[in-house]
Amino acid sequence: MKSSSLPGRIVAAVLALSGLAAVFYNLVVDNMPKGEVREIKEYEVWPDEIIELASTLPVQNGGRIKPLSTQAGFTMLGIHGARSMKVIGKDGEEHKLSPTEWMLDTLFRPELAVQLPTFRIDNSNVLKSIGVEVRGRRDRYSYKEIEPGIEKLIELAKTYEKIDSKKRDPEQQQVVDLGYNIRNYESYLSYFSFARFGQQISKEAGQQLDLSRVMEMAPRIMSDIRAAQAEGRPVDAPVRFLLEKVLDASNFGKFGLFMLPPVESEDRIWRSAGNVIMDTVTGEMKDPATAIGDIKAMEAVAQSVGDKKQFQEKLGELHERLSKRADNRGEYSRIGLESAYYEKNWFLYALVLFLMGSLSAFGMWTMGGSKAGKVLSWATVGLTAVGLGYCVVAITKRCIIMERPPVGNLYDTIIFIGSTVVAISLLIEWMTKRGFALGLAPMLGTLLIVLARRYELGDAKDHMDPLVAVLRSNYWLTTHVITITLGYSAGLLCAMLSCFYLLVRGLGLDGGDKDFRRSLTRSVYGMVCLCLLLSLVGTVLGGIWANDSWGRFWGWDPKENGALLIVLWTLAILHARLGGYIREWGLHLASVFTACIVAFSWWHVNFLGVGLHNYGFTAGKSTIWVFYGVMAMFLMFGAILRYLDVHAKALRSQVKEMPAGA
Amino acid sequence: MDDSTTSPAQTAKNCWWRRAYDVLSGFGLATVLLLLLGLLTWFATLEQVQLGLYPTLRKYFDWRSVVLLPELNGKMVPLPLPGGYYVSALLLLNMTLGGLVHIRKGWKQVGVMISHFGIIFMLLGGGVAHHFSERGNMAVGEGEISNTAEDYFEYVVEVAEVNEEGLTPKIHVIRGNYLTDLEGSARRVFNLPELPFDLEITGYFRNAAPVSANERAPDKKQPVVDGYWLLEKPDEINAEANTAACHVRILHRGAEPSAPFLLAGASFHPFTVRHEGRVFTVDMRKRLWPMPFDVRLDEFTAEFHPGTSRPEVFVSEVTRMENGGEAKVTIEMNAPMRYEGLTFFQASYGPPGAGPGDKMYSVFEVVHNPADKWPEWSLYVVAFGLTFHFLQKLAAHLGGGKRKSKP
What we know:
The complex is a heterodimer.
Chain A: H1 6-31, E1 38-39, H2 48-55, E2 58-61, E3 64-67, H3 68-80, E4 85-88, E5 94-97, H4 99-108, H5 110-113, E6 119-121, H6 124-128, E7 139-141, H7 143-146, H8 150-161, H9 170-189, H10 193-196, E8 199-200, E9 208-209, H11 211-216, H12 218-231, H13 237-252, H14 273-281, H15 288-303, H16 308-328, H17 335-344, H18 346-367, H19 371-402, H20 410-432, H21 436-459, H22 474-506, H23 514-549, H24 558-578, H25 584-602, H26 621-657
Parallel strand pairs in A: 1-4
Antiparallel strand pairs in A: 2-3, 4-5, 6-7, 8-9
Helix pairs in contact in A: 1-21, 2-16, 3-4, 8-9, 13-14, 14-15, 15-16, 17-19, 18-19, 18-21, 19-20, 19-21, 20-21, 20-22, 22-23, 22-25, 22-26, 23-24, 23-25, 24-25, 25-26
Chain B: H1 8-14, H2 16-24, H3 27-51, H4 53-61, E1 67-68, E2 71-72, E3 75-76, E4 81-82, H5 84-102, H6 110-132, E5 134-141, E6 145-162, E7 171-174, E8 187-190, E9 197-205, E10 208-212, E11 228-232, E12 245-252, E13 261-264, E14 271-275, E15 278-304, E16 311-322, E17 325-332, E18 337-339, E19 342-350, E20 361-368, H7 374-405
Antiparallel strand pairs in B: 1-4, 2-3, 5-6, 5-20, 6-7, 6-15, 8-9, 9-12, 10-11, 12-13, 14-15, 15-16, 16-17, 18-19, 19-20
Helix pairs in contact in B: 3-4, 3-5, 5-6, 6-7
């Protein structure tokens, strides 16, 4: 590339720094807990061995078996808005708590857990309305701080729940969400309450008995009840008292964790402690001995919480008992893999690598063809390739865990598109060797992974949960879904290459190098062709799938229409180019607009709330308009540039035509 | 240049049909049509949220819609657009002329020609499916047998004589396409030679319900018949929920016609006609579509992912019975039953909220589409053509780059 203009380079540097600042801000919003770090004087951190044991405990949640760490991670994300929180403990040091540690506190040390800043509040008016003292507009609060207003909160939430969710204002929605989060949190907080101190078996204080013992006595209790019923007399008061206590205990442990695998292989539903207690006492449990053993093991863990060594031992026994049974059912094999997947945080590392790659790319472009430039070029290649490797490993692990192809929901599409955009960019770089695709690769990777993290935070749902019946076809997920998603990647990439073209040309960064521009234009043309091929094939494959599932090839469903729009738009670009109606400028401007069409098809149609592909989510509703706005600015910028270019050419030709000496 | 020196070839080029041919086969028209189709698709996607799918399709892509004004969020957009049916037809013509006839023939264009051919075939398949396919649904309970499907949209008028056993051995059907144009004062007489009377039908409504004049007086002077009048309703967002209605008179041969009466899809009972001791029923209902074989639902299973209400599999075990023979078939999502040109898809089930041990029923979507597999075949053609063409281009690009890089 020829040398570029100084003002252009300054503007480019400002733009680049602004972009990086935006990414950094997003990361901070994403990961850093708000509010001051809480000091809890009695707080002691959990030993690593206990965390490891707890994180690989199998549980059934969202229709599949997963490690406790996954359930803890998404529960924490939903309530706390992040996967970690900081606390200053007994030793006076700051500790970063993982989801599993947070869950261990909630389950086994509720007196400490209620002091943790668990609840993310985005609008303090929600707390004001229930009479809770507030700090800033956005902050995090502990259960203890919200507790005085919980009764009022639940009452308000019930009122607002009756309003159609589309008609609720944001504050009403936040009250409903907080009410749900509180109830959800309480289900964990009280889960082991049956096991901590045993059950009071008579009205006189001090007479405690473990619930497992009560369960052992269930046949006798039931025969007493039956005898009383047969004789037409009321059930004895002590038995009635005991039953009330059992009912309370089972209700407290009824939700939250479904961690007890059934003994019968044909039974697919795992039980909570509360289910098992109630079913055993009422005589409905098929294998009461196992159920009593489970409850005993849980009691042993809960009662040894004061002694870490013993706690570890008892937790190990419970882990062994449950994981062995899960393994016998063939439901434990991927628990370790999944636990390690979330622990490794692959996409965060990929993000860091892409960010470093982006910085290196800026350096590479600034230094040009110098030795330093070449070194930075190789550094960019290395960082981007390793970042891509991280993404590929993570996606592969997800496929193994989910036992399906990589794309099955919107979150999957983001990470897949992020990875494929980077891979295709590197491929373009290999073919063109001009540096533009290489520089764009880590930047696009960064942006898309930030988007994935933001979406995950907003949605706070486990995206590895199983698919609904109609999507359960690995053949179609592999062919149609992947092809269409690759089409999105190509469409976005062609638009980003054109944005880059406009910036480089507008800011004079290419020094008027026509070969460079031609190479960029050819790449954009190639991407438009690839986008057409993939989108067309993907759309028709989707039609064939729809014909197999719903009996019609085309149903004018918004998602189908979105894919068709991409096909029609890319066809229009190619025909307009062949007809000579658009040339270099036209191709790039049209290519920038492709991003809007891809965004409409990929994201926007999901907000319409109609059609069979409707995912029914609202996360990212405002982001899409920001994206359209940015693309519109690029289009305006490009249109102005084209006007100036044409004007300048006209002037030059006028000057040439002027007679010498005029 | 003198006009007299113009060559015959130039004259041919300048003549109107040649210019028209150039326009019809040109890239300019292709670009405009593709953009128009894109615009129509985009507006239709947004408008279906408020208007519903079926009315939107009628507005944007039906042959009766020549020009239309789109709406966004219920507000009209002052941008007249041509109907999608004509845009698609013109695009088909443009593609045939430009992509197959006019195109320069050579190795470089082989891929493009193949893909154009594939898309033309696909669009033709769409046309055949649009005009000749039939679809309906068949609900059948466990242990029960059915041999009819009910059309989703088409309302028909059925006339039948009730015999002494209370049965209707022969039903005369007036198809929907003879009724839908009888809106307002338009009327049509239907001769029924096997019956002792004819029917005169008028005042057809796509969606209407009979209303008692005692409860609500007609607001637009609608005729009141037997104390009822027809209240026209806007199209339902879900078009399957529309209930058609019309006004009917019995034309007795050689006698005075009967007083008019109402027929409505929303009515629970047919109208009864007595003629010289014979009893007939006249009814308006969705068309029943007889199948060439019987289907018995042996068992229906709905499974959900454990501990959730997220569906995992819906399976209908059925027996297909024909000419005394039986065949066991499993119908589930993504695995329909295809037989004798008909396809049975797992569409729905019931009753809602059924528990273990409850008797279930399964609903199949039944489709007869002569172009069922055409899109699949065309896909192979298009994918091959495009891949061939783009690889050719890529090879030329890479080869060109290498040649240029040589000193």
